[in-house]
């Protein structure tokens, strides 16, 4: 059943009621009537760095933006692309012209009609300003509004992953030109999605309300409040106390226990995500592949997986997980400290200190860093663990201020998503400054190859060389772990980690 209302003295005004959701100490939900009772409270592990979908690369941002914006197409639960703002499309026989037919009657949250001009503006913005996902348009030569309901995209070569590029995640969202030009998109975004932005409290929460005019049908909850709770145990306690309805910040060491807990629903879903280490190849001695290989041999993946995921993750030395059709077996870097010492000797390298950049907003990076420090000690390397907030982490990564960092890539679908931006010489996320002509050639070939078997071979070779040359030291593929109240239905944990509340329903617990 829905939690009981707290005493009325805890609430003085309508504004105070919102504060009471986190300010009252009883751990029970405040009864605000039907509308507020249907507001879903979600605990996420960190605060979005900004809410401009074309500029952010933070997962916390996309947890919110998934519910505010739309793309032309989007992945279904099986990660197959299906219609969204585009209801249909066709491709020319030579694979060079894609024509998209848009939904009619769609509006932005401010009531402005959505048209083909918005698609052209959104894509031209990413291309012309060379924003985060500009590499998704590397083959695009023209984006044209044929009429208000038709968009034509021309490419200079076959692009088998164009649909995934356009709709794989909300970094390719269709935005409002007025919202961008007013400068408000980063803090007050306007989209076409199932929920509209209503407000934010720095360090605490972001609130959304249901869009009654949503083209996919109005949501069945009144809104969503995203609360920022960085400590997983605190988030879980808040869920168990009835202060939140959903969280993806679940302590992995509690999973086995929570499987037997009927007071909540637990999802442990294999993902396409991966966690990795990267060494800064713009610095010596990390620019020597033998030194990078030495570090790779010295890393005890079994210990890291055990400590960070408690058996819920799968160890892997490449990005793509077993079970994925693009998976490539690879097992070169078994834990071998003697091999690591030999490689350092061959390189005549004696690194004494290593600056490792991690963030408290991803606790697994902090846990892993302690193990890595122990792993590298026999090599005579002292690891200086630098723990910062995620916004600072992004700045330090982008400015090259690190020797080693640990992070994850989330929401991957096409093999290009796993490798191009991260490992191509011109990749937009190649913070480690890796450059290899053969990898570039293979990744470029995979982008245009329409024969699936040949394309699979290109990516298998690229992935193997990326690992051989240690662009990344891959660690493991995590599971998507989420928990929610039994009163929440119409929601499913997804392999790509996308958090979609458009179909969510809050009601009576059917098990009670």
Helix proportion of residues, in percent? Answer: 25-40%
How many alpha or pi helices?
A: 16
Distance linking N and C termini: 7 Å
Poorly predicted sequence stretches spanning 5 or more consecutive residues: 1-35
User: Mind telling me the C-alpha Rg?
Assistant: 24 Å
Tally the structural domains: 3
Largest sheet: 7 strands, mixed
Query: Which structural class is indicated by helix and strand composition?
Result: alpha+beta
Strand order of the largest sheet: 8-9-10-1-11-19-12
- Quick one: overall form? globular
By CATH, the architecture of the largest domain is named Roll
Which CATH class of the largest domain? Alpha Beta
Number of strands: 21
What does this structure look like?
The chain folds into three domains: 8-65 and 194-270 and 480-506, 3-Layer(aba) Sandwich (D-Maltodextrin-Binding Protein, domain 2), CATH 3.40.190; 73-181, Dipeptide-binding Protein, domain 1; 274-477, Dipeptide-binding Protein, Domain 3 (Dipeptide-binding Protein, domain 3, Roll), CATH 3.10.105. It starts with 13 loop residues before the first helix and ends in a 6-residue tail after the last strand. A hairpin with a 3-residue loop joins strand 8 and strand 9 (205-210). It is built from 16 helices and 21 strands. Helix content is 29%, strand content 21%. It has helices at 14-23, 34-37, 59-65, 116-128, 162-167, 177-181, 232-240, 255-258, 289-298, 301-309, 337-346, 363-376, 390-398, 415-423, 437-448, 452-468, and strands spanning 39-44, 73-75, 81-83, 86-91, 97-102, 140-147, 150-155, 195-201, 205-210, 223-228, 246-247, 265-270, 274-279, 314-315, 353-359, 382-388, 404-409, 473-477, 479-484, 488-489, 505-506. The longest helix has 17 residues, at 452-468. The strands form five sheets. A seven-stranded mixed β-sheet has the order 8-9-10-1-11-19-12, sandwiched between helices. Residues 1-35 have low confidence and may be disordered. Helix 9 packs antiparallel against helix 11, helix 14 (415-423) packs antiparallel against helix 15 and helix 15 runs antiparallel to helix 16 (452-468). With 512 residues, it is an alpha+beta fold.
